[in-house]
Design a protein that fits this description.
This protein is α+β, with helices and mostly antiparallel strands. Helices cover 35% and strands 21% of the residues. A five-stranded antiparallel sheet has the order 1-4-5-6-7. A two-stranded antiparallel sheet has the order 2-3. Strands 8-9 form a two-stranded parallel ribbon. Helix 1 crosses helix 2. It is globular. The N and C termini lie far apart (84 Å).
């Protein structure tokens, strides 16, 4: 076949595509273990940040992160509906986001303002340990803002209502507006606030304007200036995940296990 023929050109192009496709597929397979390892490492970092065991911007090697996590954090997979430990599910390697997308391991969520469409059967929570006992709980949260699903963690004191910290580690909100959910100053304003009111109802709300100190406004969070929809999205996220369809049953079970009503 002549090199300047149409058949030769098409065949050569097809051969190049096949070779490149094999190369890309091979690289993806080879890099997958490293990608999974990096994903777990980033997850551990985020948990350590919200627990206050790592400071934002603090440099730590992968080995240091792993050691700090293993020393201070105990992951636990729970049955989201009952709030009890999940049977036969190991915390290591459990991917809650993946489980929520798989119809075999999730169920449709009831209609909700946070726009959580599917709930995983099981959820991964973290116990921050002090002297071998749970000093703090870290719970994964997600909800829709203006442009995107916002993924984060919220840390609770072992009283199951006092906020110790919050972080949103993945979102697509507008920089300088809704993107201020990343602002350390705004996140610091969550510490000491209360999720539930005296009747056990989820009461924490992001308001317009300034909320004041936790002692004066335990259920109010400073609004994000110019980002009302994102602020409402954060409120909806908290309302959903700490209610009966989220971690409400688990927190009730945990509270009872600590001898509280």
């Amino acid at each position: 076949m002549a090199r300047d023929s149409t058949g030769y050109t098409v065949g050569f192009a097809a051969l190049v595509c096949v070779i490149c496709g094999i190369g890309v597929a091979g690289a993806a397979v080879a890099l997958k273990p490293r990608q999974e390892e990096n994903k777990i490492l980033d997850q551990q970092k985020q948990v350590l940040y919200v627990a206050g065991l790592l400071k934002p911007g603090q440099e730590a090697s992968p080995a240091e992160v792993k050691a700090l996590f293993e020393k201070n954090i105990r992951p636990e997979v729970i049955d989201l509906k009952t709030g009890t430990p999940a049977k036969g599910v190991e915390a290591k390697g459990f991917d809650q986001q993946r489980a929520a997308k798989d119809p075999a391991t999730s169920t449709p969520a009831p209609e909700n303002p946070a726009k959580v469409f599917r709930l995983p059967n099981n959820a991964l929570v973290y116990h921050v340990l002090k002297d071998g006992k749970t000093d703090m709980l870290i719970l994964p949260i997600q909800g829709y803002g203006l442009w995107s699903v916002m993924y984060g963690y919220l840390a609770l004191d072992d009283d199951t209502t006092t906020v110790e910290g919050i972080t949103f580690y993945q979102h697509g909100e507008t920089p300088g507006l809704g993107g201020e959910v990343d602002n350390p100053k705004w996140k610091a304003g969550w510490e000491g606030r209360k999720i539930y009111d005296d009747q056990g109802k989820v009461a924490l709300t992001v308001i317009k304007g300034q909320a004041g100190p936790p002692q004066a406004a335990p259920h109010r969070i400073d609004g994000l200036s110019g980002a009302t929809i994102t602020s409402n999205g954060v409120t909806n996220t908290i309302q959903f995940w700490f209610g009966p369809n989220g971690f409400g049953p688990y927190l009730k079970q945990f509270s009872q296990s600590q001898g509280r009503s």
